[in-house]
Amino acid sequence: MRLLCIITDKSNPLLWRGWVRQEKVIEKVRKGVRKKVIRTLGHWSLKKSGKNLSLRKVVGRMFVKHKFQINYSFELESSPYKIPKLMQTQSNKLDFNGQNIYVGFDVHLKSWRVTILTEKLAHKTFSQDPSPGILYDYLVKNFPGATYHSAYEAGFCGYWIHNKLKALGINSMVVNPADIPTTDKEKVQKEDSRDSRKIAACLRSGQLTAIHVPLCKTLDDRSLVRTRASLVKDLSRCKNRVKSFLYFHGVELPESLQRLNGRWPKRYTNWLKSIEFQEQSARLALDALVTSGENLRTLVLNVTKQINVLSKTPTYADQVMLLKTIPGIGLITAMIVALELETIERFESMDKLASFIGLIPSTKSSGEQDKVGGITKRGQHLLRSAIIESAWIAARIDPALNASYHSYCKRMQANQAIVRIAKKLVSRIKYVLKNNRPYECKIVN
After folding, report:
1. CA 47, CA 28: separation in Å to the nearest integer?
2. How far apart are CA 277 and CA 4, in angstroms?
3. Fewer CB within 10 Å, N or C, the chain?
């Protein structure tokens, strides 16, 4: 026979309530006959700790199904022992403690496409304004107490989203878009929703590898070097426009200006300004190009001076001094290496460093065929171009690199040989920065 058992005392009007098999259990509990009570109710356990006996209830199927929470304890009046008693109460509050929530989102200028996955289910895919705070508020409201994980593709937005998500307590990850597993169908039918679901699913399954996120100071200082590189490209385009303009109108360079090699000395600028055309319109067009070139040249000069000042700060002075001991590396290249690599310790091996720069060959193997192509398109383009330019100079100055270059040229073309010299130059950069020792030009027998 099952009866409803209710135990009360003076301090707590409702100590325990539940269905029991025998009515005499109430009297046994009040008299403190705990061992018999435990035998009568098979779902109780007795634990002795010092002088106190604790009576705890083993939660069964009812607890899991109805989400009861145990949060009450009491001491019987007639018992000399302190018996913590557990009471089951129902709560309507959400609690995701110990659970992981995975968020993948596709970043755009005006909106984000977000997909949220739990450990077993897909929650929702939706659009939101481009704000980390809005995403965090949604997660806290719908999944309180959970551990949040997020991932998005590196792109035009930089790393400010990652930094804000980390500050809000979200385990954020920035990934290379080329490293996300993608099927051929997803390449043909590309959609923002599909991309966000793919990122979230790969994040949950552990298939994503995070890229290195530089420090904020490194990003700010790096922007100065990259801006100079952009200005140099613009200046080269402007000089090519002037050459094309002169050739289009049949204007030939004087004998004294034939060997400028792309330089714009003062006498060349004065000659451009003295050229006469039949119509004033052509003169105005050339003046506009010349003025644009002079302005860009001034900007490049000013930025170069600022980079020189930055290289003398305590953060970069030692690295620049060590790098400049390597043949072919000057001030600008040394600053590019220091800012793009940030720290040499994050590269476990020479192969990973060469892969980051983009000095490894592409391969295509199938069956018995094994083809090795040119260097891959992946890599840091500014750093790779700077090192290859330095390799041309180092191959003339460094005796060891000079001997290696001529040895390579016997069995390959010069542009292929210089890539191998550039990789040797990277090996010297790694040694200098890791061991904090200047480079010495020697030939090892």
Report:
1. 18
2. 110
3. C
